[in-house]
Amino acid sequence: MKPEPTPDRSWTAPWALIAVLAVLFCALAIAASSIGTLLGDQAITTFVQRANGNVAQLVWHIGNALGTTAWVSAIFVLVLIAVVALRWWRDAWFLIAVMLLRIVAMAFKGVIGSPRPTVAQADLHEVYHGTGFPSGHTLTSTILLGGLAFVMVRHLRGRWVPAVAGTIWMIGVLATGFARVWSGAHWASDVLGAAMLGVLFVLVAANASAMLVTLTARPSTTTSDTRA
Questions:
Q1: Taking the mean position of all CA atoms in its chain, how far away is CA 196?
Q2: What Cα–Cα distance (Å) separates residue 36 from each residue in 46, 146, 199, 214?
Q3: What is the pLDDT of residue 177?
Q4: pTM for this one?
Q5: Higher-scoring residue by pLDDT: 77, 228
Q6: Is 6 a residue whose pLDDT tops 80?
Q7: What is the DSSP secondary structure assignment for residue 118, as one 8-state letter?
Q8: Residue 225 has pLDDT above 50, yes or no
Q9: N or C: which end of the chain has fewer CB within 10 A?
Q10: Which residues are within 8 A (CB) of 50 and not within 5 positions of it... i.e. 6 or more apart?
Q11: Which residues contact 136 (CB under 8 A, 6 or more apart)?
């Protein structure tokens, strides 16, 4: 496998940070599975659902769109095709790893079994089925925007790039989280757990892709050194 034709900005996360996120997510998941509604969930839902008007409706539509699995998957596939065509191998491994982790996460809800808000607890905009923790829309949004931010940071030059990419990522996830709580689909703890898991997945995929591209490049490097 040939190296990337463009300068590579290496970026990985400390494994200690990943471990902390994993522990925090597990603790939140255990709490959600045992008591369902966490401290502050009811108050936050009541506060968020006070928002009304065109702005709230707009954020709701944008937030839900960012977390829709079907079109987000389509975006990931298109970006994956593009990075493979450009021979950005680390980005290709990264996107594949993130997509696989998202598939694995689909089993979490059934295992945790945390309930969604009921009509007696919140204003539901529609009938929602299944369990609540973690929020699937928020997880998908976090992974989508985190994946795009990762590619931006690696291939766009300028000190402003990480700040802009991180800001877009954060605002997008907040929009999705707001949409899910505002519509009565999830508790705030469901959204927090999903965002935490999404960030964890992005960081793991970033580190794993760095290791994979190093391993796949070793044979080529060895051959080149031998010929030299």
A1: 8
A2: 17, 28, 23, 43
A3: 96
A4: 0.87
A5: 77
A6: no
A7: -
A8: no
A9: C
A10: none
A11: 67, 69, 106, 109, 194
| 38 token code pair | 């966490």
Rounded Cα gap, residues 209 and 174, in angstroms: 27
Range scoring the smallest mean pLDDT among 90-94, 124-128, 183-187: 124-128
Cis peptide before 134 (omega within 30 of 0): yes
| Residue located via tokens 């010929």 | 227
**Long-range CB contact pairs, 125-130, < 8 A, 24+:** 125/183, 125/184, 125/185, 126/183, 128/184, 128/185
pLDDT beyond 90 at 124: no
| Token pair recorded at residue 84 | 């493979």
Question: What is the C-alpha separation between 114 and 50, in angstroms, rounded?
Answer: 25
Which amino acid would we find at residue 51?
A
3-state helix, strand, coil in the chain (%, to 5): 70, 0, 30
What integer is the mean pLDDT of 109-135? 85
**Using the 8-state DSSP alphabet, how is residue 216 labeled?**
H
Tokens of 157: 């030059």
